Amino acid sequence: MLLFEGDLSLVVFPYVKVSGKSPEQTAELIGDFLSKHVREIARFNVVKGFLNIVLSDIYWLERLASITKQESFGYSPVTEQSPFVMVEYSSPNTNKPLHLGHIRNNLLGYSVSEILKAAGNKVIKVNLVNDRGIHICKSMLAWKNYGNGETPQSTGIKGDHLVGKYYVEFDKHYKKEIEQLVANGITKEQAEKDAPLMQEAQEMLRKWEAGDADVKHLWQTMNGWVYEGFASTYSALGVDFDKMYYESNTYLLGKSIVDEGLQKNVLQKRPDGAVIIDLTADGLDQKVLLRSDGTSVYMTQDLGTAVERHKEFPFDKHIYVVGNEQDYHFKVLKIALSKLGYSWADGLYHLSYGMVELPEGKMKSREGTVVDADDLIADMICNAGDMAEEKGLIAEMSAEEKAELSRMVGMAALKYFILKVDPKKKMLFNPSESIDLQGNTGPFIQYTHARIRSILRKAGTLPTSGEFPSALHVKERELIKTINSFTAAVHEAADNYSPAVVANYCYDLAKTFNQFYDACPVLKEQDEAARLFRLQLCKEVAEVIRRGMQLLGITVPERM
Question: CB count, 10 Å around CB of 232?
Fold first, then answer.
């Protein structure tokens, strides 16, 4: 493996016909000319047909001077001509509280939205609440049968947790009914359909769609409990939305779109009355859009929601942040809308992310074996407080300051550990690794920022500008180069919808700063000009770390 020096590389093969010389000779000619006539080029080297250019200290000092003058370095302005992007994330069901999988969804959606804004896009963040359907009816029926009228107020249980309790309760009783039917000689598949509880839940769904007053009242009451619980969890996670959509308001529009598709012969009706779209020619299969009893499916609702959204907000791109278990669903949605005549369907994009798993395996909501989001957040904050106490980071803080730092560090540990992994990859969440002050973690980056802020406080008043040195220490140069690459990292993250790019950039910057600080004295530097320059460099690093972590939804502390 060849090792070579260089900030830029030029492939010279396209120029050999013009030069009439070998690639190596051509590269030498170009490099020699540039080094003599361009002041920003210090030297060059040639490796086969590649000209590797080393930029001068003058170039890097001028870049730093330019960066320090920019109030929002790394962020691109949003203009009237900027692309309009809608990002849907969270999309919870109102039959259970949020869990670890939802946390990855929410953190990804929020961070992708912020990164797209920073890259110069107009962005609207939306949430589609799955507030109707058979799963909702299961919780409702179980509460009606076994709840004895209990409420969040009477039990002290958070609303979404209370409703989730009855989703689990339904499954327990449903399984018992299936076991009894199978024992009586019925196949398991038939037993799952014939079980009285499932029959009752399906009847409740039919009543809901028919507007039955009692069913609607119970639905509104229990959903109200859930919404209060969700709002609390969203606040703790630090995510928000510009617009909320509810499937209960969009599924009828979906039905009208299906009817229109039948009239255009884009869709077909089966003998049993179900409406399908035949996508076998597209390498898929026949997808049901309306059941034989006339009730809608998720696809019906998503058709209606997409059409309503584009009418209200004519987006250029619509990003669905949804787990990879729904890859097929979103392939069908995009093709179906296109076949139905909606040209903007080309702008639909499924940000398919991998599941979050635990050492003991996959989470199951029906069985109640999930990592609850609220519990995890509380545990992370508690663990952060214990770590800070052990490391002596909060010894001189007030109780209020200790609590706030524990919250900031705990949430940074959680968010960073999840966001540093490429969204497409499945991941294993390890709370103990995430809270470590060493290595590629949120708390390490926070600690580096706090360390810089401490240096700046000790220095006192900082110059707004100053004379830069004529030559740079190698670690100063590396640090300026890393700062300079922030804008590129933001745009790469936006192009790939991957907060991991920004997360790992922040880690690289923090790591490079610590190497610089070990090699280059700052407060103890005897040369005043060098000292002031390094303080300016420290100040810019802290600011870029703050901006980068902000794109991940992470706050960095002033003291730690």
Answer: 14
Q: Which two tokens stand for residue 21?
A: 């010389």
> Tens digits of per-residue pLDDT, 387-414?
999 988 888 889 999 999 999 999 999 9
b vs e for 383-401, b when ≥16 Cβ sit within 10 Å of the residue's Cβ?
bbbebbeeeebbeebeeee
How far is residue 36's CA from residue 32's CA, in Å, rounded to a whole number?
Answer: 6
CATH number belonging to domain 409-551:
1.10.730.10
| Mean pLDDT on 78-82 | 95
> d(Cα 413, Cα 374) in Å, to the nearest integer?
15
CATH dotted code for 8-55: 3.30.1360.70
pTM exceeds 0.85 = yes
- Distance between CA atoms of residues 412 and 441, nearest Å: 8
Structure tokens at 153: 């107020």
> Which residue matches tokens 């140069």?
477
Q: Quote the tokens at residue 131.
A: 């507030």
CA angle 226, 434, 439 (to 5 degrees): 155
| pLDDT (average), residues 246-263 | 88
- C-alpha pair distances (Å), 94 with each of 110, 132, 148, 456: 20, 8, 20, 48
Q: Which fold has domain 89-357?
A: Rossmann fold (3.40.50)
Give the domain ranges of the chain.
8-55, 89-357, 409-551
Q: What angle do CA 137, 138, 139 make, to 5 degrees?
A: 90
Write the CB contacts of 379 (distance below 8 Å, at least 6 apart in sequence): 431
Q: What phi and psi values does residue 46 have, to the nearest 5 degrees?
A: -120, 130
How large is the angle between the packed helices 442-459 and 499-519, nearest 10 degrees?
A: 40
Per DSSP, 54 falls in state E
Retrieve residue 439's tokens. Answer: 């290595």
